[in-house]
Amino acid sequence: MKKTLIIFGICLVSLMLPKGFIFADDQTATSSPLQKAIQSVQDTVDNLITAKDENSPQETSLRVDTFNQVINLVDTEAKDLQVKLLL
Fold first, then answer.
1. Residues 80-87: contacts with CB within 8 Å, 24+ apart?
2. 34: nearest Cα among 64, 86, 87, 79
3. What are the backbone angles phi and psi of residue 3, rounded to the nearest 5°?
4. Is the model's pTM score more than 0.70?
5. Residue 79 in 3-state DSSP?
6. Which tens digits make up the pLDDT trace of 46-73?
C-alpha cells in the first residue's frame, strides 16, 4: 500500500511540474498523443480527488481508472521517446 501511495505521489508531482522541467532537452510543444495522455491523467486524478473529498462509493473504481490512465501515459511516453531516439 505504501509503495502504491509513493508511486501515485510521484506521478502527481510529475504532473504538476513545469513542462520544460521533465523534458528539459525538448523545449518544443509536446506531441499530440502525449499531450492527450497527460490531460487524461490530470482529469482522472482530479476526479479521484473529488471522489475522495466527497467520500464517494465510486472511489475504488476511480482509483483503478486513474492507475490505468497512468499506465497509458507511461506507454505513450515510452513510444514518444522511442520515436525521438530513432530520429
1. 80/31, 80/33, 80/34, 84/26
2. 79
3. -65, -40
4. no
5. helix
6. 988 888 888 888 888 888 998 999 998 9
- CA atoms of 40 and 44, how far apart (whole Å): 6
The confidence score (pLDDT) of residue 32 equals 81
Please write the tens of the pLDDT for every residue from 34-53.
888 888 889 998 988 888 88
Q: Which residue has the cell 475504488?
A: 60
Residues 59 and 48: beta-carbon distance below 8 Å: yes
Within a 10 A sphere around the Cβ of 60, how many other Cβ atoms?
Answer: 10
Alpha carbon separation from 40 to 15, 20, 50, 64, 86 (Å, rounded): 11, 19, 15, 14, 26
Distance CA 74, CA 15 (A): 12
